[in-house]
From TrEMBL:
Residues 4-61 form the HTH lysR-type domain. This is LysR family transcriptional regulator. The keyword Membrane does not apply. Pfam families: HTH_1, LysR_substrate. GO terms for molecular function: DNA-binding transcription factor activity; sequence-specific DNA binding. Belongs to the LysR transcriptional regulatory family. PANTHER family: HTH-TYPE TRANSCRIPTIONAL REGULATOR, HTH-TYPE TRANSCRIPTIONAL REGULATOR PGRR. GO terms for biological process: DNA-templated transcription. It comes from the Bacteria. The keyword Ligase does not apply. Keywords: DNA-binding, Transcription, Transcription regulation.
Length: 301
């Protein structure tokens, strides 16, 4: 067997993880055709097919699955060791993959991206904005951000935001036409802008009444999987939206939106950054934690 370059093994892992030459190429910064050639050479060197290719998808063969199970953790360890070696030069380096929901992206990350890049110029931050539940170990993420109730079991976690509330809001024009709901049950007669998770589940709006949680299914003219769509629809007077309070504060201050059912809003909760337990936390992850907690005004962990 001829010497196999590490780049070929990394390419195989990326293709197997994404089930796509195109998406793997985007991650690695090479063309799909170059990856295809690399895989042909790797399979020829090993003497076994590692991938099953069709016109619609790519999937590991049985031999490919066996190789991936042992190879992916080893490559992660090599990458972490090289990154840690680079830290000795005084700055975190390498790729930092984070999965997070839209709310966290809009409130914590998007306003801070330029500042983070300026502080950590040798880090490449890769964001997967995804409201679904993601197995960060299986998907090879360094960390995830979620609200406390949605944290992946068995992970270490630290708050990276102040507690925030979700509230119902609408444009004054809508409220003048339809009236403001006084109780959660009044939403049955209103145009509610709904949210649907990636798996198809329709989100139920959360309230608290007499100290007890209350969940209500709502209906209206729009269902989306992105709260930006609901915000813009609410600003245009299309209906009531259920959104994180910090996201709408500028619009409330400007008189473009008004909060209703405020007395029924559920308790505020923080966003957490979570990650697998390791004997020594990677410097790049420590850098992100310190950065987010600093911006949130939280003490350093």
């Amino acid at each position: 067997m001829s010497k196999i370059p590490q780049e070929a093994l990394q390419a195989f892992c990326a293709i197997a993880r994404h089930r796509s030459f195109t998406r793997a190429g985007a991650e690695l910064g090479v063309s799909a055709s170059a990856l295809s050639q690399t895989m042909r050479q790797l399979e020829a060197s090993l003497g076994v097919p590692l991938l099953t290719r069709t016109t619609r998808q790519v999937a590991p063969t049985e031999a490919g699955e066996a190789l991936l199970a042992r190879l992916a953790p080893a490559l992660d360890e090599i990458r972490a060791a090289l990154d840690e070696a680079g830290q000795a030069q005084g700055q975190p380096v390498g790729r930092l993959r984070v999965t997070l929901p839209h709310t966290a992206a809009q409130l914590l990350f998007y306003p801070a991206l330029a500042d983070f890049a300026a502080r950590h110029s040798r880090l490449r931050l890769e964001l997967d904005v995804n409201n679904g539940l993601v197995d960060i170990v299986a998907q090879r993420f360094d960390a995830g951000v979620r609200f406390g109730e949605a944290l992946q079991p068995g992970m270490q976690a630290l708050p990276v935001s102040r507690p925030l509330r979700f509230v119902v809001a609408a444009a004054p024009d809508y409220l003048s036409r339809r009236g403001a709901p006084q109780h959660p049950e009044d939403l049955v007669g209103h145009a509610c802008l709904g949210y649907r998770f990636g798996g198809g589940q329709h989100y139920r709006w959360q309230f608290v009444r007499d100290g007890l949680p209350l969940q209500l299914a709502v209906d209206g003219p729009l269902i989306a999987n992105d709260n930006t769509a609901m915000l813009h629809a609410a600003l245009g007077g299309a209906g009531l939206a259920y959104l994180a309070e910090p996201l709408i504060e500028p619009w409330v201050a400007a008189g473009r939106l008004a909060v209703v059912l405020d007395g029924y809003a559920p308790p505020a909760e923080a966003l957490y950054l979570y990650y697998p337990h390791r004997p020594q936390q990677p410097a790049k992850l420590r850098a992100l934690i310190a950065f987010l907690r600093e911006r949130a005004g939280l003490p350093q962990a």
